[in-house]
From TrEMBL:
This is UDP-glucose 4-epimerase. Its cofactor is NAD(+). The lineage of its organism: Bacteria, Bacillati, Bacillota, Bacilli, Bacillales. It is an enzyme of class 5 (isomerase). InterPro entries: Epimerase_deHydtase, NAD(P)-bd_dom_sf, UDP_G4E. The keyword Metal-binding does not apply. It catalyses: UDP-alpha-D-glucose = UDP-alpha-D-galactose.
Length: 327
């Protein structure tokens, strides 16, 4: 059995579905603080609970034969982490540490950890490889880097194996439009543009157009959630087949798009015109984040197959089918 923490969230719900499609038995642990129960695949066992609750974790590890944990449950908003850093250090660092402790003590030895490109901060290189210095510039990135450090130390002292997957900008939705991205409040670029184009919000705010980039807006590497999902399954298979490993992999497309370019792509797919309002820079935002994913390509044979167009198109399908999200 695979334990998926945060399986009611955006990426966790997509991975849960695919795990079950591929024959894995899944138990989802989620406190539903940001996730949605209806996003959880009905074929999964669902346990409502918090990853910070040792008793809940110990009970799960005792009750089920859990071979590995995929740990998605976390807070993941750069802006919010600047406003409320203690929430991030408590949920992302404190509670994850308790999860790792419980795993070690209950002899569950395999972990896939959701990390982020935010650990790199504001890199000098145009294309980010895993080796470059980690200098996060916001509490979200620092909280994830702290766990990577804890994992690397735990690898040396205990029987814990892990793969840390550093996501760039997750985007898109399940091809059927059944599950997708639904945050409250929504802060991510693509869903915000699409909501605006659906008429739910008056304009799309662009945070900063004075960055040192060709059009002045921030550049990000958007990676389809189904590509991320496939990377998780490959990583899980690798983790389960190896004795003891601790690896980190970037997950991105290797191509950056500016905020303005993403707006243009959304306009093209939806055939609607966006009303843009320029707003000040958002604290904690680096100007450019683009991945090299050569390491996971070479070592695990992962290749992203979806483009930005696919991400926007599938996200649009999700928005059309669910104009009010999971409500
Ligand atoms: N962004 C924006 N308007 C929005 C949401 C995001 O201009 O309504 C910008 C944001 O400042 C960043 C980029 O879009 O430069 C991607 O932001 P998002 O929150 O989607 O992901 P992040 O890179 O923070 O993980």
């Amino acid at each position: 059995m695979i334990l998926v923490t945060g399986g009611a969230g955006y990426i966790g719900s997509h991975v849960t579905r695919e795990l079950i499609n591929q024959g894995y038995e899944v138990i989802v642990l989620d406190n539903l603080s940001t996730g949605h129960q209806s996003a959880i695949d009905r074929r999964a066992v669902f346990k409502l609970g918090d990853i910070g609750d040792r008793q809940t974790l110990d009970d799960l590890f005792n009750q089920y034969d859990i071979k590995a944990v995929m740990h998605f449950a976390a807070n993941c908003l750069v802006g919010e982490s600047v406003q409320n850093p203690l929430k991030y250090y408590d949920n992302n660092v404190g509670k994850t540490t308790r999860l790792i402790q419980s795993m070690v003590e209950n002899n569950v030895k395999k972990l896939i950890f959701s990390s982020t490109c935010a650990i790199y901060g504001n890199p000098e290189q145009d294309i980010i490889t895993e080796q470059i210095p980690k200098k996060p510039i916001n509490p979200y990135g620092r909280s994830k880097l702290m766990i990577e450090t804890i994992l690397s130390d735990t690898l040396k002292s205990d029987e814990l194996s892990y793969i840390s997957l550093r996501y760039f900008n997750a985007a898109g939705a399940y091809p059927s439009g059944e599950i997708g991205e639904d945050h409250d409040p929504e802060t991510h670029l693509i869903p915000n543009i699409l909501k605006h184009l659906q008429g739910a919000v008056e304009n799309i705010e662009v945070f900063g157009n004075d960055y040192d980039t060709p059009d002045g807006t921030c550049i990000r590497d958007y990676i389809h959630v189904q590509d991320l999902t496939n990377a998780h399954i490959l990583a899980l298979k690798h983790l389960l087949s190896q004795p003891k490993i601790g690896f980190q992999y970037n997950l991105g497309n290797g191509k950056g798009y500016s905020v303005k370019e993403v707006i243009g792509e959304c306009e093209r797919i939806t055939n609607k015109k966006a009303k843009v309002r320029y707003a000040p820079r958002r604290p904690g935002d680096p100007p450019v984040l683009v991945a090299s994913s050569s390491k996971i390509k070479n070592e695990l044979g992962w290749f992203p197959v979806y483009t930005l167009t696919d991400s926007v198109r599938s996200a649009w399908q999700w928005h059309i089918k669910h104009p009010h999200g999971y409500q």
